[in-house]
Automatic annotation (TrEMBL):
GO molecular function: transmembrane transporter activity
Transmembrane parts of this sequence: 27-47, 59-77, 83-101, 122-147, 153-172, 193-218, 224-247, 259-277, 283-303, 315-334, 346-365
GO cellular component: plasma membrane
Keyword list, A-Z: Membrane, Transmembrane, Transmembrane helix
Full protein name: Major facilitator superfamily protein
Signal peptide: none
Record-linked SUPFAM superfamilies: MFS general substrate transporter
InterPro entries: MFS, MFS_trans_sf
Length: 367
């Protein structure tokens, strides 16, 4: 499941990684380029909770390989042709595939993990590795062959479909509450879950805002070329490889909520450094921001599932999917602000949002 998650989440990272190439090859404005990220996020944000509700009611293991293929097909088609509308449609297809994948994948992973926070951390790590590899994969394919080579980006989807099918077969058929990943202990705590979700939305906007523009911003600040921007995006995503598992380990020692709150506080300082500190030092602050954004990632999922023990699919769809993709809805606003002022000015609001997350998390109790 972790390896399959990596193959699928390549496509969450690939859309942002393609933005500099759309700007360079098709002369998109910042607003138009961020609209591509919005297209990938919008349908995903709308349909993800619906898939979560479905997985609460019945098992849908066959959905995993199909969702992996849809996620890859959309990105593979996005570079073909010059039509902006077709590009938006292609990345929207990818977004729907990713939305269909995550709630059911979280359910199956929870079964395989036996409820372990650390094991769910490894599952989340797989997705973060996929994110981290996305800019390198896009650079390897598109930098040399142009956007017309994008069909080669479908290869991870084929591998992901095979891996997901194998994982589902290994877990085997389940039924009843166990099949849905539900537990019998505790009642659903909606107020706490909604506050947690609000904090994750803040995290999502920061993460996708940086994902969309950090490559362009670093190229602008350092005077480097495409490689400089790709390196910055890789640093942002690669922090997930360490941060997610580290977060699970830290939570076992200090408690989940304490780790999540401190991570959000760290993110405030780190993003301020990305925006304000000049020169190559920006890479260090991108790495620090990556740590602050990724350490609480798996903890969001298990906290959400434990706040809603009777609706694990819904909780997974929101914490793993909706509140991750919803950040893309803010990308066009940031893009329009960048067109009207500067890219640096557009990134300033991203400093404030993690502080809002800290406020929302204050006073929450361990479920």
């Amino acid at each position: 499941m972790s390896l399959g998650h990596a193959c699928v989440d390549v496509y969450q990272g690939a859309v942002a990684a393609l933005v500099p190439y759309f700007v360079a090859e098709r002369a998109y404005t910042y607003a138009a380029a961020s609209g591509v990220v919005l297209a990938a996020s919008l349908l995903s944000s709308v349909v993800q909770p619906l898939f979560g509700v479905l997985t609460d009611r019945r098992e849908l293991p066959w959905l995993l390989p199909l969702a992996a293929l849809a996620g890859g097909a959309g990105v593979a088609l996005s570079g073909l042709g010059g039509s902006y509308a077709l590009t938006l449609a292609a990345v929207a297809l990818s977004g729907v595939g990713i939305a269909a994948y995550h709630p059911e994948a979280a359910r199956v992973a929870r079964l395989a993990a036996g409820g372990s926070h650390t094991a769910m951390g490894w599952f989340s790590l797989g997705g973060n590795v996929g994110f981290a590899l996305a800019p390198l994969l896009v650079w390897a394919v598109v930098a040399g062959g142009g956007l017309g080579a994008s069909p080669l980006l479908a290869v991870p989807a084929l591998a992901g479909a095979v891996l997901c099918a194998a994982a589902v077969r290994a877990v085997g058929p389940r039924s009843g509450r166990a099949a849905a990943g539900r537990t019998d202990g505790g009642r659903d705590d909606w107020p706490s879950f909604l506050r947690l979700s609000g904090a994750v939305v803040c995290r999502s906007i920061v993460f996708l805002g940086l994902s969309t523009f950090v490559a362009l911003y670093v190229r602008e600040r350092t005077g480097g070329g495409a490689a400089a921007g790709t390196a910055a995006l890789f640093v942002l995503y690669a922090g997930g490889a360490v941060g997610t598992v580290a977060g699970a380990r830290l939570a076992e020692r200090y408690g989940r909520l304490a780790v999540v709150r401190r991570s959000y506080a760290l993110t405030v300082l780190a993003v301020a450094g990305v925006v304000l500190v000049p020169g190559p030092a920006v890479y260090g602050f991108v790495a620090l921001a990556s740590a602050g954004l990724y350490v609480p990632f798996a903890l969001h999922i298990t906290l959400g599932q434990d706040y809603l023990p009777g609706r694990v699919g819904t909780a997974s769809g929101v914490t793993l999917g909706l509140t991750v993709s919803v950040g893309g809805l803010a990308a066009p606003v940031l893009g329009a602000l960048a067109d009207a002022t500067s890219l640096r000015t557009a990134l300033v609001p991203l400093v404030v949002l993690p502080a809002v997350g800290v406020v929302l998390l204050r006073g929450l109790a361990e479920p």
